[in-house]
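Notes, p. 3: input format for complexes.
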Amino acid sequence: MNQSMHIRIQSASPPLLFPRASSSSYRSCPCYVVPMEASCNAGIMSTSLVSRCSLGGKRTHYVHSGQQIRKCSSQMGALVTSRESEVAATPAIGDDKIGVLLLNLGGPETLDDVQPFLFNLFADPDIIRLPRLFRFLQKPLAQFISVVRAPKSKEGYASIGGGSPLRQITDAQAAELAKALHAKDVPAKVYVGMRYWHPFTEEAIEQIKKDKITKLVVLPLYPQFSISTSGSSLRLLESLFREDDYLVNMQHTVIPSWYQREGYIKAMADLIEKELQKFDNPEQVMIFFSAHGVPLAYVEEAGDPYKAEMEECVDLIMEELENRKITNAYTLAYQSRVGPVEWLKPYTDDTIIELGQKGVKSLLAVPISFVSEHIETLEEIDVEYKELALKSGIQKWGRVPALGCEPTFITDLANAVIESLPYVGAMAVSNLEARQSLVPLGSVEELLATYDSQRRELPPPVIVWEWGWTKSAETWNGRAAMLAVLVLLVLEVTTGEGFLHQWGILPLFQ
Ligand SMILES: C=CC1=C(C)c2cc3[nH]c(cc4nc(cc5[nH]c(cc1n2)c(C)c5CCC(=O)O)C(CCC(=O)O)=C4C)c(C)c3C=C
Ligand SMILES: [Fe+2]
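Output follows (510 residues plus fe (ii) ion):
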C-alpha cells in the first residue's frame, strides 16, 4: 500500500504518569536505547512493536503487561511536565489549516431513527463479523437483527426522552475543545464524525475537504481502544482516505487511546470524589466501575486491547484517589451485553446481585468506557441497575455523571491534540521505522493488525435464537439455523415475497 495513504497512528498521550511498581501483574523487562532527539510520547504497543526510548541518553525501562509494553517509572513524570509546557507554547504551524476530527458512535435522534441506526450498527463487520463466504449476507442479516431488536431499543430511547443525547453532547464537546485550543493559540477547527448516525464520518470528511484542512488530528472519543469502537471508525476512515486524492495527500495523525492521560484520570477522580461526598458515610461506599462490554472473543481471539486498557484505567483512577487519601473498596464489571454469546465478565447485573448478597449497602456506579451521557447511563444504569441494586439489598445508590464538557477533561483533550501536532505528517514512516518507534506509528491497518491480525470470524454478538444441549451443538445448531434464516432472507429480499413481507416487516425503508 502507498505510504502516503497511511493514517499514521500515535498515542499523543504522555508517558504513564503513575508509578506501577505495586502492581503484581507487571513484570520488568529489558531496556532499549534511542538517541536523545527521539520523541517520548507514551504508547501502547503490541509485543511485536518492541520500542525504544531514552531521555538524554539514559536508558528507559519498560514493563510488559500481557500483550502490552509500557514505559515504567516515575522519572517519566518529570518528562511529561517539561514536554507539556514546551508543547503548550507551540503556536499553530505556519499557514497550515489544522483540523481535529472527533470520532464517536452516534445515536438515534428520534424513535423513527432507531431501526435504521441499528441497521448501520449491525451492518458493520467490526460488530458482526461473518465468515468470508457469507459476507454478502451482512446487510440482510443486519436488516433482520435491527428489525427484531428495534422494539426493545425503542422502549429504551423512549424512556430517555425519545432519542439519544449523543449528538448534542458531542457537538458541545467539539465546541469546547475548539475554544480550549484557541485559548492555547492553536486555531483548529473541530469536526464530529459519527460511525452509525448523523453527522456521519463521511459528512465530516466532506467538510474537512471543503475547508481545505492541511493537517488533521484524528481523536476517537473513546478513552480505551476497542476493535468494535475506535477500531471500526478508523477502519472506515482508512477506506475513505484510500479512495480520495485530497485525503491521501493530507497530513494526519491518530490518537488511538488516551485513558492513561493525567488530565483524564484526574477529571474522573474529581467526579468520583465529589459524588462520594453525597453519601452519609463516604468511606463505606463501594466504587463500582461499569464498562460497556464486548464479546469475549474480541479480546481472546482477535486480540482487542480493550479489557487490558480498561483494567489499567481503573487502577490509575484508584491510584489517583489513593493519593487523595480515598481508599474505598472498588470493583469493575461489564454491562450492556447483547445476545447469548459470552461477553467480558463479570457482568454488571450479576455483580450487583453478588454485592448485595455480600452485604454491601452503598454503591457508587462509575460509567467508565464513554465520555457522554447516553442510553446506557441514563436508562440501563440509572433505572435498571439501580432497581436491581435496591432489590438486592443495596440501600444507597449513586452514579457519577459522564465527563461531558468537564473543563479539566476538555483541557486535557486539547493538550493531547497539541502534543500530537508535531507528529502530524512529520514522520515519513517506513514500515521498519514504524516498528521501531516508541509509539505504534503506521497505517490504521497496521494498528488494527496489531490487535486483530487475522481478522478472524467472531461469533456474532447477537443471535436471535439458540437451542441444543452442549455448547458445540448449540453453536452448530445456531449456525445451521442462521444459514436457513439467511437463505430465507435472501429469498425475501430478492423475490419480494415471503413471511416477513406477509407480516409487513419488510420492506423497511420505503
Ligand atoms: C466503549 C463503548 C462501547 C463498546 C465497546 C460497544 C460495543 C458494542 N455495542 C454493541 C451493540 C449496541 N450498542 C448500542 C449502543 C451504544 N453502544 C455504545 C458504546 C459502546 N458499544 C454507546 C455509547 C451506545 C449508545 C448510543 C446512544 O444512542 O446513546 C446499541 C443500541 C442500543 C441498544 O439497543 O441497546 C447496540 C445494539 C455491540 C454488539 C458491541 C460489541 C461488539
Ligand atoms: Fe454498544
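The two ends are 40 Å apart (CA to CA).
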